[in-house]
Every structure is written in C-alpha cells, then in structure tokens.
C-alpha cells in the first residue's frame, strides 16, 4: 500500500491531493469523518448535528476537486453519502481506493476489484532474507533449513516478516530446526489466515525478552489508526 501511495504522490499531473486514512475494524462514522477532515486541517467539532457534519465534509472534499482518497483496511461496507464523501466521477476527477480483506466489502462498495496475489517463491525468499539479515551465515545446510522455514510462511508477507524478524541474527542450525518443527506443529491442517495467526503467536513467544512481550501486548490494546507520540 505504501508503494501505491508513493506512486500516486508522483502523479501530480493527474491528482491535486492525496489523503490516506486507516479505517478502524469497527466502523465509526464520526471518527472516520474527523480523520478525513484532519487531512486538510478542517475541524468538524463545531457542527451541530450529523447532517451538518456530512454536509460540511462533502463541501470540503468537493472543493478539493481532483483527489485520491485511500481508505485502508476497511472491514465493513458503507454508503459514501452517509459519511459526506462525494461519489467519484470522470467529471470531478476524484478516485477512491479501498483495501479490504473481504470480497463482500469490495462488492458492496461497488468497487472494481483487484486481487493481491501471493508473493512468488523468489520474492518470498528475498523478503525473508532481507528481514532475517544477510549477515546470517548461509552454510548449505543452514540455508536449506531456512528455506523450509520460509516455505511454512506460505508466501504471505506478514507471516514472512514476523517469523524472519523473530529469527534475525540466529546462526545456530539447531535453533532453526527447532523453529521449523514448532511452526509445523502450530500450523498443521490450518487455513492460510489461521496459519498467519499461529505464526504471529509463535513470533511473539520468540521474543527473547519478557519486557518486549509485555510491550507488544500493551501496544496491541490500541487501535491501529491511533496517533501516538514517541518519548525518548
């Protein structure tokens, strides 16, 4: 998605504005409206009621003319007009890009669907190597075991990244074989989505410091679209 965003930013002759909004798993219209409006420094807090909010956002977006609105990770379909988002047309030159894990959401939003294919074996292996670190000693036997671990990730980017990072810098072949055995035990007979969840669980237990585990659990309490400030 980040690559698409970067490419669209360079399409300055086609679009005047690009707005990227991450949608919460549980659709909150008020929150979605506020998030979109914040992208162009507009506050809807002074609007007296829902109708006024919808009208204000509609006017603001209409004035932006040629824009791309990315609604990332949408779990539930909704009517654009109920939020205050103008229908994209050839006349206004606007586009709406939606990412979703559900084909039903895509159909109900009346989108032109583009299915994201799995990585090729070479792409998956290169991503795995990139995340695990090229400094890992690739002896023939170790490389073979590493490839088997990578294959357990079923060419799914999220699983590859999490498992590879959990094994980053590990050069002990015994640890790699143990990781392979544990992954096979955890994911045997499961669907791809169930495998990803088990692989995430495995990578969590691979965190070598209990403080990191607690930190991850703490972060998981917050929604993915929450804005937070770092503190040194």
TrEMBL record:
GO terms for molecular function: ADP binding; ATP binding. Pfam families: NB-ARC. InterPro entries: Apaf_helical, NB-ARC, P-loop_NTPase, Plant_NBS-LRR. The keyword Coiled coil does not apply. Residues 1-134 form the NB-ARC domain. GO terms for biological process: defense response. The keyword Cytoplasm does not apply. Keywords: ATP-binding, Nucleotide-binding, Plant defense. PANTHER family: AND NB-ARC DOMAINS-CONTAINING DISEASE RESISTANCE PROTEIN, PUTATIVE-RELATED (PTHR33463:SF212), NB-ARC DOMAIN-CONTAINING PROTEIN-RELATED (PTHR33463). This is NB-ARC domain-containing protein. The lineage of its organism: Eukaryota, Viridiplantae, Streptophyta, Embryophyta, Tracheophyta.
């Amino acid at each position: 998605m980040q690559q698409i965003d970067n490419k669209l930013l360079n399409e300055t002759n086609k679009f005047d504005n690009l707005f990227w909004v991450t949608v919460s798993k549980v659709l909150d219209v008020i929150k979605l409206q506020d998030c979109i409006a914040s992208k162009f420094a507009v506050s809807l807090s002074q609007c007296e009621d829902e109708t006024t909010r919808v009208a204000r956002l509609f006017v603001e977006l209409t004035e932006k003319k040629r824009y791309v609105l990315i609604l990332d990770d949408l779990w539930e379909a909704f009517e654009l007009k109920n939020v205050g988002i103008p229908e994209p047309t050839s006349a206004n030159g606007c586009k709406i890009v939606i990412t979703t894990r559900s084909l039903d959401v895509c159909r109900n939003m009346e989108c032109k669907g583009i299915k994201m294919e799995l990585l090729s074996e070479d792409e998956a292996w290169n991503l795995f190597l990139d995340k695990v670190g090229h400094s890992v000693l690739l002896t023939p036997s170790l490389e073979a075991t590493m490839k088997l671990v990578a294959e357990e990730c079923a060419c799914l980017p999220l699983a590859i990244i999490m498992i590879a990072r959990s094994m980053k810098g590990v050069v002990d072949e015994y640890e790699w074989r143990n990781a392979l055995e544990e992954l096979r035990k955890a994911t045997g007979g499961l669907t791809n989505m169930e495998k990803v969840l088990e692989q995430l669980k495995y990578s969590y237990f691979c965190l070598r410091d209990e403080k990191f585990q607690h930190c991850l659990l703490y972060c998981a309490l917050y929604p993915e679209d929450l804005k937070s400030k770092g503190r040194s």
